[in-house]
Structure formats: structure tokens, C-alpha cells
Write a structure and sequence with these properties.
It comes from Sellimonas caecigallum. This protein is of the alpha+beta class. Helices cover 46% and strands 21% of the residues.
Length: 155
């Protein structure tokens, strides 16, 4: 494993344990050249997942797009980086547990929205407004009313 700090080609494993998600191995590594430490995660390589976009184009699954969408939705919200990371992992686990070779981007969007609803309601509305392409204020207000009605029923 190459050191991300000095690019030295050899590093050594200092500690190895199962990651919190249970589906990967967390390894603490140390670079003998610069002395810095860093963490890597090792996962089983699977058959690439293909995402079917709205226009029916297909592209390879990219975890970074889910991370980016969730980070944007949670921008300036009181949500810790750890909770965001766990949410991304939960979304990814839900996607891969379907054991499908292809998945629609709309299914991924619904999974993300479901997880964001539990994480932070403002982040959920932000994501939903982009994902569902609210055309006007009334559509936006309808979604807010749905959230408020559900909150009222829970009380």
C-alpha cells in the first residue's frame, strides 16, 4: 500500500480489525519512510453494479456520488461526519443487499431519502427538493406538510 503522504511504495500494517459495518476490514498502517499513520478499509471485490439513469444510460456505481449528495444535503446542519459516514454505509449496504447487477438511480434516490429522513429532516427536504425536482413552492409545501403530519401522528 502506497503512503498517501509521501508516496513511499511500502507501508506496514500496525493494527487490523473488522470495521463497524462488519463487511470490511479496517487496517491502521504506518509508513517507514515518513512515519505517518493512516487507515485503509479492505472489502471483498464484487461484480460491478450498473446504475440505470433517468435517460436509460448506464454507468458503473460510484459511492462518491452518494457521499456527495448526502454531504450537500447535510451542509451546515448539526450532523457529525461519523453519522454521515454511517448513513453512506447503510445506503450502500441496502443497495448491495439487493444482489442485483443493475439498479435504477431512482431506487438509489429513494433509499438515500429514507435514510436522510431518519438522520435530519432538513437534509431530507433539501435532498428531496433536488431529487424529486420540485417544480414550484406548492410541491415543496406539500412535502413539508407530509413531514409535519407524520410528526403529529407520532406525538
Amino acid at each position: 500500500m502506497k503512503c498517501p503522504y509521501c508516496n513511499h511504495p511500502d507501508t506496514r500494517v500496525v493494527d487490523s480489525r473488522p470495521a463497524e459495518d462488519g463487511s470490511s476490514i479496517r487496517r491502521r498502517r504506518s509508513c517507514d519512510a515518513c512515519g505517518k499513520r493512516f487507515t485503509t478499509y479492505e472489502k471483498v471485490e464484487t461484480i460491478p453494479l450498473i446504475v440505470i439513469k433517468k435517460d436509460n444510460n448506464r454507468e458503473q456505481y460510484d459511492r462518491g456520488k452518494i457521499e456527495k449528495g448526502i454531504l450537500q444535503a447535510c451542509y451546515k446542519r448539526p450532523v457529525s461526519a461519523d453519522k454521515i459516514r454511517k448513513t453512506v454505509e447503510q445506503v450502500e449496504t441496502d443497495i448491495f443487499n439487493r444482489e442485483e447487477k443493475e439498479i435504477s438511480s431512482s431506487v438509489i434516490g429513494e433509499i438515500v431519502m429514507h435514510k436522510l429522513k431518519d438522520l435530519d429532516e432538513v437534509a431530507y427536504v433539501r435532498f428531496a427538493s433536488v431529487y424529486r425536482e420540485f417544480k414550484d413552492v406548492n410541491t415543496f409545501m406539500d412535502e413539508l406538510k407530509n413531514i409535519l403530519d407524520k410528526k403529529g401522528q407520532e406525538s
